[in-house]
Design goal:
Length: 151
């Protein structure tokens, strides 16, 4: 199926009231508790290249992390420094590298994501809908008609 939409109730973005009802049922928590209960932790690495106060390039990578990380230099597990409160961030490190024409700054942040924020973000992802390119329309319409005829 195009856009992977199968369930008309949960594959489309939910309205706020429906999303909150879904969260309440899924986690067996009221909304306030879901906003303060940590769902998972993320490591965000932002790399920014700046020259004369102009951002030349910036990219962000996000990873889900656990309480431990593997240190390749010491070949051992180390405890991650993590925030204790949901939906907060903790800057772990900031590194600056000076090159001839620009400065590269790498900032690593650990974030605690709440149950509510996780479900809200998942719901927001459903708002992005792919539209098929024009040259596929006839084929899609033909296949749809065949499926409906056979049903």
């Amino acid at each position: 199926m195009f856009n992977s939409i199968i369930d008309p109730h949960y594959d489309w973005p939910l309205k706020e009231i429906n999303l909150e009802s879904y969260i309440t049922k899924k986690y067996n928590q009221n909304i306030e508790t879901s906003r303060t209960t940590i769902h998972h932790y993320e490591k965000e690495i932002i790399k920014k290249a700046v020259s004369n106060e102009i951002i030349l390039e910036q990219n962000t990578q996000v990873y889900i992390i656990s309480n431990y990380d593997f240190n390749e230099l010491t070949n051992s597990l180390v405890i991650n420094t993590l925030p204790n409160t949901a939906d907060t961030s903790l800057i772990v490190s900031t590194e600056n590298y000076n090159f001839n024409t620009y400065v590269l700054t790498i900032t690593t942040t650990h974030k605690a994501i709440s149950n509510y924020t996780y479900e809200f973000n998942e719901n927001e992802k459903k708002r992005k809908i792919r539209i098929p390119e024009e040259f596929y329309i006839d084929r899609i319409e033909t296949e749809f008609r065949e499926i409906m005829r056979d049903a």
